[in-house]
Amino acid sequence: MKVELQNLTKIFPSRNKKKGEPDVVAVNDFTFTIPDGKLVGLLGPSGCGKSTTLYMISGLQQPTSGRIFFGDEDVTDLSPVNRGIGLVFQNYALYPHMTVKQNILFPLQNLKGADKMTKEQMLQRAYEAARLVQIDELMDRKPSELSGGQQQRVAIARAIVKMPRVLLLDEPLSNLDARLRLQTREEIRRIQKETGITTVFVTHDQEEAMSISDLIVVMKLGVVQQVGKPQDIYDDPTNLFVAKFLGTPPINVFQGEVIGEKLYVGENAILDVKGVEDQPVTFAIRPEGFELNENGPLVCELSNVEVMGRDVSIISRHANAVSPIIRSIINADNKLDVSSTTVRYSLKPHKVFLFNAQTEERIYFN
Ligand code: ADP
Ligand code: MG
User: Fold this and answer.
1) Ligand 1 atom with least separation from CA of 49
2) Ligand sitting nearest the alpha carbon of 27
3) Which of 30, 51, 57, 169 to mutate for ligand 1's pocket (most ligand atoms within 8 Å of CB)?
4) Percent of the chain's residues with pLDDT above 70
5) Cβ neighbours for 28, distance < 8 A, ≥ 6 positions apart
6) CA 220 to centroid of ligand 1, rounded, Å
7) Which one has a higher pLDDT value, 114 or 116?
8) Burial of 336 (C-beta count, 10 Å sphere; 0-12/13-18/19+)
């Protein structure tokens, strides 16, 4: 089911206008089409409007303006129960007094009219959903007798048992420990692919979004910053915010200046940037964008080398760096003189991004 968001805006009115407390524009003019059968990651820092967007798609919140379509159907004024959605929240919110089986059956028992099912049909569907998330052996347990990961699987089974048109997941992995988080996210991906349910996955964790999504939407303060495939956004960020938000270790940010189509940091020209006018710039280098070069133009003060097996991570500093440390990732076969006080680099041009020093919007070069 294709989901179309048209100019979605959500404004929470000020609770205290007299004291000058402003309205909160939680989501600002969000237009996007979620392709049928895809998993879209809604990514951004806390408070940027991810949950509000999800709740508007679900019908739990009404947009201040804008429309929502499921396929060709305008669902903006439909209640959540009539939209055919499955919802999973961060805290699993299972019914504690019910068994796993009863929890999963619950949404089916409330179906009315033509959708009403016999007991056998309901049980069959419940077991199908349970098998999909691999909890069919736990059907007679109570939620308190399950681990966090198992509880979240039950919540997912309960959300998909009605075969929703759209599956909405709001930070579903946040309460799980690191190992389970990894395992469950792979599980969600598998289930999504097997069922082909159009899915929106909300997270503040860029790695999670990158690994699970067909498409990512990066948000900041209610405004969509960039939409694209994970790798494309990583390779081609539209502004400094997006460049900094994606990638671990994070991108390294510097102040510099373009003079005569060359990028200067301090006195040194470190890169040709054809087509860019003279101006002060902020620029950023991905950790894998550095190459050790004893005559390289970028000279940094060497602080530390962390061995990671296949790669080494070199920590250095530079007077013109905005980031407190510069971290490069270099293949461990390269030899670095660790007794030296400096480390010199040349740069891979496609791993260096230039930004307008004021607007922080991307400046492209050849
Ligand atoms: P996220 O899920 O990305 O962390 P939210 O969508 O929950 O962000 O919130 C976006 C903004 O809207 C935040 O500034 C938040 O404080 C505000 N907000 C969310 N819900 C309400 C509400 N019910 N009333 C007032 N402000 C709200
Ligand atoms: Mg949220």
Assistant:
1) 6
2) 1
3) 51
4) 100
5) 9, 49, 221, 222, 223
6) 12
7) 116
8) middle
For ligand 1, pick from 24, 42, 90 the residue to mutate: most ligand atoms within 8 Å of CB: 24
User: Is the Cβ atom of 51 under 6 angstroms away from ligand 1?
Assistant: yes
221 and 215 in contact (C-beta within 8 Å)?
no
Nearest listed ligand to the Cα of residue 49: 1
Which residue type does 342 have?
T
pLDDT band at 308 (very low <50, low <70, confident <90, very high): confident
pLDDT in tens, 228-253: 999 999 999 999 999 999 999 999 99
Tell me what the mean pLDDT of segment 258-275 comes to.
96
Confidence of residue 33 (pLDDT cuts 50, 70, 90): very high
21 lines ligand 1 (CB under 6 A): no
- In this prediction, residue 89 carries a pLDDT of 87
Mutate to test the pocket of ligand 1, among 10, 27, 52 (most ligand atoms within 8 A of CB): 52
**What pTM was estimated for this model as a whole?**
0.93
pLDDT digits (tens, 9 = 90+) for 192-237: 999 899 999 999 999 999 999 999 999 999 999 999 999 999 999 9
Q: Give mean pLDDT, residues 4-11.
A: 98
- How far apart (Å, rounded) are the C-alpha atoms in residues 239 and 225? 8
Distance separating alpha carbons of residues 249 and 207, to the nearest angstrom: 11
Helix (H, G, I), strand (E, B) or coil at 203: strand
Instruction: Check if CATH label 3.40.50.1100 holds for domain 3-244.
Output: no
Q: What is the pLDDT of residue 288?
A: 97
Q: How many CA atoms lie within 13 A of 312 on its CB side?
A: 16
**Residue 79: exposure state from Cβ atoms within 10 A (0-12, 13-18, ≥19):** exposed
Ligand 1 center from residue 359 Cα (angstroms): 25
Structure confidence at residue 86 (pLDDT)? 93
Write down the domain spans for the chain: 3-244, 251-363
Q: Which residue's entry shows tokens 């399950």?
A: 146
Ligand nearest to the CA of 42: 1
Q: How far is the CA of 49 from the centre of ligand 1 (A)?
A: 6
Helix count (H) and strand count (E) of the chain? 8, 21
Helix axes 100-109, 119-132, angle to 10 degrees: 120
